[in-house]
Specification:
2 copies of one chain form a homodimer. The first copy, chain A, is α/β, with parallel strands linked by helices. Chain A is built from 14 helices and 18 strands. In chain A, the strands form 5 sheets. In chain A, strands 4-16-15-14-13-10-6-5 form an 8-stranded parallel sheet. In chain A, strands 1-2-3 form a 3-stranded antiparallel sheet. The first copy, chain A, has a 3-stranded antiparallel sheet with strand order 7-8-9. In chain A, about 55% of the residues are buried.
Chain lengths: ~375, ~375
């Protein structure tokens, strides 16, 4: 399923491809986020024009609204949202912990009230797998507990043990029910947890690998920890993950963070920043993020960036600034397109750099040119 | 400039074409509204895919924000909004009366505070013409007073006299300054006022024609009067307007109103309904408007309408309902596209019906099938 084409001699970066039921994904890859069944403000035709290879959907959000009756009647998420490329769904775990109003974590799963109408819901390992089977995603994520940050060692250890017991129950459900999508077996990824504890990350990775999944994610990152801790969490997991399976760092990150993660052996990324920041007028460039509302763009009639998406060409910074200030949706559409193009093509540049044997130079140049302003990006 | 190709034997409907500096417009025509320099939520590439022949821009809104310094620096509205087709700009009069916070109507023009930051502004006949010359629209509208509804006969008569004096000042400014766009003379349309008084409508039309303009609009309609009064206002003006100039009913209307206006000799329409109603999930069909939020569409997996726009095909009512309820922008994008397609193609059907000699049948069938629910449309 996953083929490793090339590895970088100076880092753990790697160039691969992953076969999914709805198509082949070239890695490293960025995956736009379509939480509620839509990549915010973007039409599927535009996703294709952006060369998006795979998009995300959120199990929790879709189970709450429109609900599984409609998803089942629709024949799954691909048909519902009119996207026939690969889809990855998360397990709902992260959202249950961050959005569910009142939640009780028990051995069987999590009881909570949803954020839309407050009605009581339950998601456990089997429920999550069943929902994702109904959604028909190409890649389903295991149901895990995502511990908060910071997290006491004792709680982290107990949480990890629960997550591992849930992982076995997910595996059992999948083995028994053999979920299919587009006539082929759905893929399932385990999620390495363990908070900021090296020995827990190692244990988590080893046990998941012994259970056996189609890929492995690093979870519990980008939850408020420092960038150094985030990098460490990945560094503590990757050595224990198999070379012949894809690795996914969940919910990351800024452009230099992704490139640094690629250098640490990560293949897949998802992040809401490109579309979320677009809505307040922040756009990405090789020099860092810029705020279109700044007065310096009032009469700036150049494009957002030299290397912007074709659909954004001819629309000046002055015009887009006006649209954002006037609350016109076309403004956030254009910046969303530009930002997604930046993220998607950044990973494309990383792929080319690995193929061409110049990833070290690309990484050094990109990261040093990019001015991170973390406060404006989170 | 305006060529009459065909007239309907059973009504005043006519099939024509108007040459403007940025292209030829086939009439009768619907003109999407781009108030603040953008047809709400729609990309210019989509306007082209919709076969939009001409769009509107609003002088008042653009003069307030981004302001004329930016519009001048941009080189006009076409370049600013990246649209190279024909543009019609209104005079600012209607918005000054409806949006300006405090307004004083004087002989020289109107003093008011704008709705964005409350700063004092002035627009008079010459200012309006000068702003529209800077915007570089293909068709500029005369600066008029749009009296409220209802309106006393005495006030309506005085208001009309002021509008006619302003019309002469507009004509003088244009004759002296000869505004050009795309290397050709800008066109200027007079606006027939006179509230609901037949003799004032007649007087207004006759005097404007004696001054001489490139086209004539009927203004002061769709301001709260009954549909019968709206039709009467047009019927009282049209007989005194020349056959060889285009006629434009401003700010109209529902689909059957437009068809009835075509039958009364009107060539051009603009209306915010297709995009405004899209934002609360209302879509147009031959049977009338429908509300996508209704529960009956929860598991309705058919397209919005059989004859929807290609970019809306494959997106079910159930999916679009979900998007609108979840506040996803793609939902209003899809309904906006569908509604604009409905309006634009409705006028296309009217053109074909006039050409084919079956406009009377088309009109009767369309108007009788369409269930008007005026309260939900205004």
């Amino acid at each position: 399923m996953f083929t490793l084409h090339q590895t970088d001699p100076h880092s753990l970066a790697r160039r691969g491809s992953l076969v999914t039921p709805h198509g082949v994904i070239q890695t490293p890859v960025f995956m736009p986020v379509g939480t509620q069944g839509s990549v915010k403000a973007i039409h599927p035709d535009e996703l294709r024009a952006l060369d998006a290879q795979i998009i995300l959907g959120n199990t929790y959000h879709l189970a709450v609204r429109p609900g599984m009756d409609t998803m089942r009647a629709a024949g799954g998420l691909h048909k519902f949202e009119n996207w026939n490329g690969p889809i990855l769904t998360d397990s709902g775990g992260f959202q249950v912990f961050s959005l569910g109003k009142i939640r009780k974590i028990k051995e069987e799963g999590v009881h909570f009230q949803n954020h839309v109408d407050g009605s009581p819901m339950f998601i456990g390992p089997e429920t999550s797998m069943e929902i994702q089977a109904t959604l028909g995603s190409d890649i389903a994520m295991l149901f895990d507990e995502c511990p908060p940050h910071p997290c006491e060692a004792d709680y982290a250890a107990k949480s990890l043990d629960l997550t591992l017991r849930w992982a076995r129950r997910c595996r059992d459900w999948v083995d028994k029910n053999q979920p299919m999508t587009n006539g082929q077996p759905q893929l399932h990824f385990g999620i390495v947890q363990g908070s900021s504890y090296q020995e827990l990350r190692e244990k988590s990775a080893k046990e998941l690998v012994s259970i056996g999944f189609d890929g492995y994610a690093v979870g519990g990152v980008s939850v408020g920890e420092s960038e150094a801790e985030m990098m460490a969490a990945v560094e503590h997991a990757v050595p224990f993950l198999p070379h012949d399976k894809p690795r996914y760092a969940m919910g990351l990150g800024t452009p230099p963070q992704m490139i640094e993660m690629v250098a640490r052996g990560i293949d897949m990324f998802d992040c809401v920043l490109p579309t979320r920041l677009a809505r307040n007028g922040t756009f990405f460039t090789n020099e860092g993020t810029k705020a279109i509302k700044n007065a310096c763009y009032t009469n700036d009639f150049s494009d957002l960036d030299e290397d912007t998406h074709p659909s954004c060409k001819g629309f000046s910074r002055a015009y887009i600034r006006h649209l954002i200030k006037a609350g016109e949706i076309l403004g956030l559409r254009l910046i969303s397109l530009h930002n997604l193009h930046f993220y998607l093509s950044l990973l494309g540049r990383a792929r080319k750099a690995i193929e061409g044997g110049f990833f070290a130079e690309f990484r050094a140049e990109f990261v040093s040119n990019y001015q991170t302003r973390e406060t404006s990006e989170t």
